[in-house]
Structure formats: C-alpha cells, structure tokens
Structures
1.
Amino acid sequence: MPSKYSAEKASLGLRLGALGTLLFLYVPILIIFLYAFTTDEKTFSFPLPGLTTKWFGVALGRADLWSALTLSLQIALIATASALILGTLAAAAVYRSNFFGKDAISLLLILPIALPGIVTGIALRSAIGSLDIPFSYWTIVIGHATFCIVVVYNNVLARFRRMQGSQVEASMDLGANSFQTFRYVVLPNIATALLAGGMLAFALSFDEVIVTTFTAGQQTTLPIWIFSQLTRPRDRPVTNVVAMFVILITFLPIFFAQKISAEASDTEGDK
Amino acid sequence: MTNPAIQFEKISRHFGDVKAVDEVDLEIRDGEFFSMLGPSGSGKTTCLRMIAGFDRPTSGRILLYGQDVSDLPPFQRDVNTVFQDYALFPHMTIEGNIGYGLMIKKVPVSERKRQVDEMLDLVQLPGFHWRKPSQLSGGQRQRVALARALINHPKVLLLDEPLGALDLKLRQQMQVELKAIQKKVGITFIFVTHDQEEALTMSDRIAVFRDGKIEQIGTPAEIYERPATTFVAGFVGTSNLISGETAKRITGDARMFSVRPEKIHLATANEKIPAEMYSADGVVREVIYLGLYTRYMVELDGGETLVVIEQNLKSTSMDVLKAKDQPTRLLWSKDHINHLGA
C-alpha cells in the first residue's frame, strides 16, 4: 500500500541513526549466532579459528538441557493458560461493571509488569515460604502467572473497549443466554487479542530468570540452565546454540502476536 | 378485545437520586406504531430499555400482552430491539447476523435460510447474504438490524433512535419504509426519538416525555394542534405562547394560549377584521426567507414577539423582504388557538 508510507526519503542522518540503533541492538545477538559455530571451545576469539556444527550434536545429546527445555515449555504453557482464563475474567469484570475501587484494582493488576522482577521474586519467596508451601514446579507457575496475567488482561481489555456498540445486549435481545452470548459474540470478538496476549505471555514466561530463581526449588528451567553455564566455560558454544534456539522460540510468538494485533487494528470491524 | 401490547403500572427507575422515570403509567395498543418523543434525558430511552429487559424498574410492573415481564431477562422476553448503533456482529456475515436468533433457537439450517431470504427481501437487500457488516452503508446496516429483529416475529419491536445516524434524505426515505414494513408485518412498533418531525410522520400515537414523566399522549394531530402543556407546544413544532394582558386584549380572556406560526395571516395594517378571526397589530422586525416559506418576527404593540410563517406561493424573496419594519395586522381563526394548562 503506497499510501501508508510517505514517499519522501528520510534524510541521510536519520537513516544512519536508524542503522546505528539497529546494529547496537542486534550485533550482540549476531555474535551469539556466530559463536555457535566456532571450533574454539573456551574463548571468544576473533576471527573464528574454524567453523563447525558439532555443537548442535553435543547440545542434542545433553540430557540436562532437554529436561530444562521440557520444564520451561510446560511452565510457559500452564502459566499462559491460567493467565488467559484469569486475565480475560479480570478484563471482563473491569470492563462490564462499575464498582468501588475499580481503578485501583485495574492498577494493581497492571503493576506486576512494572515492578522489578527482583521485588516480585523476593515477595513471592517470602509469601510462599511463610505459607510453608514447598518450592516446586507449581510455585514457578504461580510466579510466572503474576506477570502473564497482565499482558492478557491489557490486550483483552483494550479489545473490549474497541468492541462495537451494544453487541452483548443485542445477542441477549435475540434470545441468547450469557453462555451463548460469550460463545458466539464475545469470544470471536476477543479471539485475536487472546492469541496475541497468549503468545506474549508465553514468550515472557519462557525466558524468565529472576522470578524463577526465587520461586524454584530444585528445578532448572532453560534460562536458569543457560545462566548456570556461565560459570562452566567448558562447552561454551553449546550455550550459544541453546541461546540461538531460545531467541528463535521467543521471537516467533512475539512476531506473530504483533502481526495479529496490527491486522486486528487495520481491519477493525472487518474480520 | 386483546390485551394492550405494553402496560406500564407506576413504573419508576431511579439512578441514585435521579428519577430517570417517575411513576409512569402507559398503555400501548396492539399493532400500533407508538413513538416516545422527548429531549435527551427525558426518560424515553430508559423506558425502552426496561421493556427490552436491559434495565429493571425500581418499582412498578411492566406487562407484555397481560403477562408480567418485569423480572424476566432480555432473552426470555418476546420483544426485539433495533439499536441506535445497529450493534451488528462484525465477525458474522449478513446471513449470520439475521439468522442469529433462529440459530440460538436451533431452527434447522434449511428453514433458517428460507426465513433469512424472506427477511432480505422484506428489507430490500436480496443477495446480501455473504457480505460483512463493514461492507455495508449506514442505511443498509439499518435494514439488516431491522431484519435481524423482525425474523424472530417478536410481539413488540423496539426501535431506539434507529435513524439518528443517517443523513436527511435517507432518513426521510427510511421513515416511509419503516411505516410500510410495520403495516405489512402488523407488529407493534415502539419508536424512541428526539426528532418531532420523525414522530409526527410515522406514529399512530405519540407520548411526549419530559423529566421522567409523560406530558401528553395523543395522535400526531392532537399533539400538534392541541398541545396540553407549554412544554409540548414548544417541543413539537414552533408555538407562539401568549398570556396575561396581551391575551386578554386579543381574546378577552387572560388564560394563556398557543397559536401555530403557520395559522397566522400577515395582513396590511388596516385590513378589516372578520368576525371569526382574532387580530393583533405590530411591526415586522425580521424577515427570514427560506425558499419554501418565509419566517417573520413580528413585535406586537404590547412588546411580545410572534413568529409567523407564510408559504411563498406567489411572492419572491424581493417581495417578502420589503415587509421588514412595516406595520402589520396579524389575523388568525378563533378555532386555531389552544388554551394551555401549566
């Protein structure tokens, strides 16, 4: 669509600035990609002494890596699923009804994303500890859900606010009860918001370190596994291989989440 | 005789301290086109929402063909609504929208399709099945909203200012069409509007609302020719209100009366006063030429200003503008005054 972008070219300075920013953001990531293929297993020497793909094989063979990956995926899935349900319910409550302290509750729901992870982590740790709940798989899920709920809540609430007119009333007027109205009218309206929010929540949970450190027992999630590798420089390139995959795994959902949100706002009321 | 379509028994709806609807009694007859007319905040929309079930009365009962529906949720009432913003479902096709009520009632697909076709014909949108609401114009969405409600054969159809978003030409066309559709389907229509012309055009009867109460209920002609209160006289059309000394001088009676601007004849200063006419002398202060008619502001000798409207049957703008600042005698038939209460 030519109309969407200005035909005028940006000035040279602006273009250089943009290039510089992108390099600043992505060169470190490229370095990780590069050193995933190095033959040198201890240091980051440049130029690379040689190229190899043997670290991919080594990574595949490491059982500790696989269990960390499985754990991270499981936690991300469960945290996302509970965030989808709780976030949607919270958004519906805040959107549909007016009650005392509504704004305060809305703020409290959003706050966890702004709170430093270290604060959330330490708070959760003392809360869980004082309740005598053993640190486990489920405490990690709870920790992750605190910030996953926010992204779902925000996405869904924004969609509710954009929902056209009195559709819910219209549906009830045409004979649908609350469940049917949710199934046939509300859900289709917020579907893409749920997908986008869910993907974002998944990505957030999948690479979370700080809160996990405080809420985990003996479990090692993938980010924590990577973190622990720093102190063991032996198979350094393996870490890079894993980091590469983490980047890809988190990049895809965020990429799609963005695409979905953008499409939804481009074609509002046109789905 | 059948039960009235809708009966309000001392219906009140309070929002905190605000009495949006205040002890309203109302009877809407079977099969009539009934309008609720009033300025915003007069309680007409709240009344409509209470009939639909979106709002519950604070006190009182609502009867639908004799059945008390006051406590039924919207989906258990045999009424349907055409919303001001149409409220079409954007993710469904036109067929999906119109067939929604039947889908919920689990009507078989083939039967549903047949009835949707019938409705699309009724609202003159044949072949629109697969379009999406976003691909339709405002007027077309309006028709879809109407079809979506009518397909359920409600006992009463509620229309909440459905023509408000349309431009004037389309609105006038839809007024005629709505009336024709109502005749055809024979369903009781309750139409909420703040546009007096709309109400006068379509209604069998009109209720004029003000501050949560009904000021007057009557046919369009009754409301227009015999307004019961100064509010109705001023809200429906334009009225000249005359009271006190001036009233006494003109009619020999100090009671307030109203007279419509188009009933007054603008005569020359010394014209003879026929026996069946009232008269008042004054000076033309303002002449506003409006093409079809001309509006004059005439200052009476007593100080009041009356509005007079005369159709431009023979005169041109040049003629009528000459009347400015000339002395004049106003004449109107004694039948055309209307004594008012408060």
Note: Chain A has eleven helices and no strands.
2.
Amino acid sequence: MSVIAPNFKLSEFIKSILDVGFWTLLIFVLIGLPLVFIVLFVIEMPVINGEILTPFLALTWLADPSRILPIVKAFMTTDLFRIAAFPGFGFAALIAASTIFVERKMMAKLQLRVGPFYCGKLEGILQLMGDGLKLISKEIIIPAKADKPIFWAAPVLFVGTAAAFVALIPVAPGWVVADVDVGLLAVFAVIGFFPIITILSAWAANSKFPFIGGIRALFQMVSFEIPLILSFLGVVIVTGTLNLSEIAASQSSFPWIVFFPIGAIIFFITMLAELERIPFDLPEAESEIVAGWLTELSGMLYGLVQFGTYLKLYAFAGLFVVIFLGGWNGPMIVPPFPAEIITEGIQMGPVTAQFPGLPVFTQEMLNGTIWFVIKTVGVIFFIILPRGVFPRIRVDMLLDLGWTKLIGLAFVNIFIALGLLYAGILGPGGLF
Amino acid sequence: MADAAFLALSVITIGSAIAALEMRSLIYGSIALMGSLGGIAGFFLLLDSPFVAMFQLAVYVGSIAVLILFTVMLVKRELIFKKVEDKRRKFVGIALMLIMMVSLGAVILDSGIRQITTDEPAVDFREIGEDFLTYYWPALILMGLILSGAVTGALVLARRVDEENGKHIN
C-alpha cells in the first residue's frame, strides 16, 4: 500500500506551521506595517463623515464594519479606481475574457462541434483559465536574428494602446476614464498607433510570414481608417460635438442608427477590418501565412497580443454602441434602492444593522451600465458571427471595398446628415 | 507642474529628433522621429489646443510615420544611401542650425509674444470651424479643391483595369 507522505511526523508538521506563522509575522511587522503607514500617510486621504481619514481611522473598519462602505465609496471616486477597475481596464478585461470563451463555444455550436468541453465540469467553463496558465508557464522563444527590444516591447505597447482606447469609452453617465472634448479625434489618434505597432512587431521578428502578415495588416488598417472616420461624421454634424459622453447623452429619445443606418453599416464593416476579423483576417490568414504577424510570438507575448485584440474588440463594440445605438440610454429597469434601508437599516430579529453610506451606486449608473453592457454584448455577438459563416476575401476585393464602395457610401451618409440638418428635422429647432 | 511637463516634452522632442538624425538603423531612426512628432503633439496639448494635438498624432504619427516605416522596410538601404562621414560638414551644419535658431528666436521674442495672457481658456474647435466658414472661406474652398484634385489624381493613377480578351475580370 502506497502512502502519500511516508516520513510524516506530526511534530515536524506543527513545527513547520509555527515557522511559517513566525516568519510571516516578522516580515509583516518589519516591512508590511511601515509600508502600510507610508502609503497611508503619503497618499492624500478623503474626508469621511466630516473627518479626514487617517491611517488609524482607516484601520478601524477592522473593529467597526460600518465604516467600510464610506471608505469604499471614497475609493471609488478616485482616478485609480476608474483607470484600473470600473469603466477602465478591469471591466474591459472581464468582458474581453468572457468574449474569448463565448466565441470559442459559439463557433463550435455554429459548426456543429462541441468546443471546449472537459476543462471544468460545466461545458469547459475553465478552459480559458487553463489556456492562460499554459501561456504564462510557456517559455518565450525569441528568434535568433530578431530585433529584441522592439520584439519585446510590441506586445506590451499593443495592450497599452488598446487600454488607452478603452479609456475613452463612456459606460454610464459620468462614468468614463478620460472625458475629453475631442473624444472622437482622440479615438482616431489612438487607432493610428495599432498599424505602427503591428508592422514594427512583424519587422522585428525577422521572418517571412510575420513580415507578409504585418504588411497586410498595415495597409488594411490604414486604408480602412478613412471610411471609419467618415462614417461617424454624420452623427458629429448633427450633434455638433466630438465628446463621446455628449453624443451618448444626445440619444435619449432615439438612437442615431434610426437616421444613419448607412453610417452604421459602414462603421460595422470597417470595424471588422480594423479588428482583423473574418472575412477580413488577411493579416492572420492561417491557411496561407501560418499565423500572419503573430507567427513568431510565443508564450505570454502571444497571450498579450490576443488579450489586446479582445480589449480592442470590446472598445470598438462600445464605440459603436455609444455613437449609433444610444450608449447607456434605455428604459429604467433597475428598481430604486429601498429608502427604509438607508434610514432605518435592516432588522434581523432583535438586531438592527445600520449601513451608513448606502446606496453605493446610483440608480442611473446601474441602469446605464446594464443597458450599455447588453448593447455591447449584442454588438460583439454580431462581430463574432461572421467568423462561423463567411470565408476570407481576397486582398484586391478588400481594398476595392474600402477605397471605392465604403468611402462613397460614407459621403452619401454625410449628405443625408446635411439634408436632415438643413430640412430642420434634426439639429436646432428639430426633433432633437 | 506645467514646467516639469514642458521640460520633459522638450527633452523628448529634441532628444529624439537628434536620435532620428544620428541613428545608423533607419527603423530606429523612424521610431525616434515618431517620438519627436509625438512630443510636438504634447506641446500642442500644453498650449491648450487638443484639437491640433489630436490631428498631429493622427496624421503625423499615425500616417506619415507609418509611410516612412513602410518605405524604409521595403527598400534596401545599401542601394540608396552611401555613408559619407565628414566632420567639417557636420560642424558647419550645427553652426548653421544655431544661427537659424538664434535669429528665429530673436524674431519670435521681438514679436510681442511676451504680452500674451496665458490664462485664457482653450480655444473651442467650433470657433475654428466658424472662422473657416466665414472669414477664411476662400482659403477653405481652395484647400478643398486642391485636396479633392489630389485624391482624384491618386485614384486615377492607382486604378488598374484587369482585362482579358476585352472582358473585365474581378
């Protein structure tokens, strides 16, 4: 009979536990506590219940749990929270990660396959985590004659640029990382960085397949940027603003897709091309050039590029929602927060629990976020769908589509906008 | 605070401009050029004109730099460049640059730039559009005509008709 640990001794086991406890305590006292106090003293603390939050008060939530909510709420107003968690990186990363899994499973169902099945008990739900662990633990192999600095920097820059794009998307009223006046131009400027990073990464790999893929990616992205910009000019003409929050707020009665269906279609097609999705996935055409510009990337470098691609997908879907589908606007479906919990607290038998600081989120913010997520998920579904249905198109067809048909249609869209404006239907004095 | 940002931007812009000129690798040179152009976009942001800054990023970094990269990658540089190292030329060039900079700086400092109040709010881009459509309309129409002429010419030049026995293919 085999034993898991043949040399097991209870006394040594207890000793090892005590050792770990001792060293943890020592390290916490010597390094952790001074660090906590330095951080708490250096960072400017918010005012809660009329008094400035000192480190001592901040640590009192250990004894008084009712202080947690005000502290959390004060943290949520900081820029750090916006950038790292809610409308920014964390939220987008969550949607991006779920998109990867849903895409694989949905493709499988469309093509009558099973898809991820074994990892995790329920329909392969842990597959993504397994893939991530695999990518992290894999060795990163750099080609011998590659240009190392650029090769290392390109995936990181790719994710960084995608995160900058995400930062411009407003999720709910007032909930946006960077609320810039020239939001759409900022989007234009940020998208312009993707082809540079792609071609640099492709060149740095010093290999045939990545280079061909990189050049394809370059001309595809650069030539489809022009119809992309032209397609939302109609909305800009009618609303008279470039700020994405104002554009979203202007659609409280109807989304702009009602008046600009042509613009929305152009935007959607150019979005597919910018994202290198099928039927425009020439830069990554796996049957011709292995994996295109991603061929030489391995391990977490590949993982970073994939992650950046899906962040970009979320950002484009969010942009479509904000410009054409009404952003966060929608009927109020979130019930108002019960007022008696705020005033009286929750009664549990003889005990009454007071929760100062409720409600954490306002009703508008929750409702806006729910509508935004529903619409964005819908758009992502339609971005994924062609992958299971269409074949890849030829290079010359792609360029012909971009340079002649889409740009021409975009001008038709702009003239529709001008017509609506001068006829007095939209704009000052009109419906809106 | 603006001073620290100004200094950092100056260092980035001038440093990468020098690097763009001096680097032996053309790819790194064009990356440095991108840094220089991006630094100029930062200056526009400091000068409260985000509109121009975004166009600087989109057009110069996003398109012109890509064009340069593309050209550099597709040609073999041994075929077009021959390295000529000449110390005297270099120093004459630096001296010329200094003379240019000093005289330009004198002209600019003399032009009343010191009397500008600096706490004005940022110029709204709608005002730029209004100015274009009212006072500067001839210039706008001229620019529009030139640009559309250039685009039409480019389309005509790039057009390729595939014909086989008098029949269109594709």
Note: The mean pLDDT of chain B is 81.
